Amino acid sequence: MLKKELRSSLLKKRQSMSETEWREKSDRLCHHLQNYSLFQKAQTVLAYFSFRQEVDLSLLFTNNRENSTVSNKIWGLPRCVKKDLFWHIWQPESSLQKGKYGILEPESNAPLLHSSEVDLILIPAVACDLNGYRLGYGGGFYDRMLSSEEWASKPTIGIVFEFAYLQQLPIDPWDRPLTAVCTENGVISVIS
């Protein structure tokens, strides 16, 4: 199956989930992340705001004060500018704005994060496979970022629901495998 057809099929399946199922699976996934050593050790974590029923990571942000695993985290969230992602420091009380694609983003004047400050990247995906490859939305934002020298060595965790964790995805020469994949059933290390 081609990437375009696979993407369309998986997005339909994801959007057919009930609100309750989506919330329960998102929260379970967040609990698995909080218990994963790579996440626990990371000080500065790049994340995202859920869009079109992606896994919702807001439990990580709202537990920030109550949970020692996440209370010391510095969060970075993206802003889309032309064909690139710019990462800004974000705190739950910080204001947001709708960006170019209708996704919530930090304000443009929020402090920027540079790659040298980042310990871990949580990457939204339409699907991931057993080899750590990711199927995105087709815009190439993360592919471009992860292929640049400054970001290439950063640990990455693909975030997907279990139904989108597949045996094998079609890959292109520019695709890079992730360090791990996290679903509501657990975290699977791909690259040690």
Describe this structure in words.
The chain is an alpha/beta fold. The protein is 28% helix and 25% strand. The protein is built from seven helices and twelve strands. The strands form three sheets. It has a seven-stranded mixed β-sheet, with helices on both faces. A three-stranded mixed β-sheet has the order 8-7-10. A two-stranded antiparallel sheet has the order 4-5. β7 and β8 form a beta hairpin. The radius of gyration is 16 Å and the shape is globular. The two termini are 29 Å apart. 31% of the residues are buried. The mean pLDDT is 89.
Question: What is the CATH C level class, in words?
Answer: Alpha Beta
**How are strands sequenced across the largest beta sheet?**
3-2-1-6-9-11-12
Distance between the termini: 29 Å
Give me the CATH superfamily.
NagB/RpiA/CoA transferase-like
**Unreliable segments of 5+ consecutive residues:** none
What is the averaged pLDDT score? 89
Order of helices and strands: HHHEHHEEEEEEEHHEEEE
CATH topology, by name, is: Rossmann fold
The major sheet is characterized as: 7 strands, mixed
CATH architecture: 3-Layer(aba) Sandwich
> How does the overall form come out from the CA principal axes?
globular
Q: What's the gyration radius in Å?
A: 16 Å
Compact overview of the structure:
The protein is α/β, with parallel strands linked by helices and 192 residues long. The protein is built from 7 helices and 12 strands.
Notable features of this structure?
192 residues; alpha/beta; 7-stranded mixed β-sheet; 3-stranded mixed β-sheet; 12 strands; globular
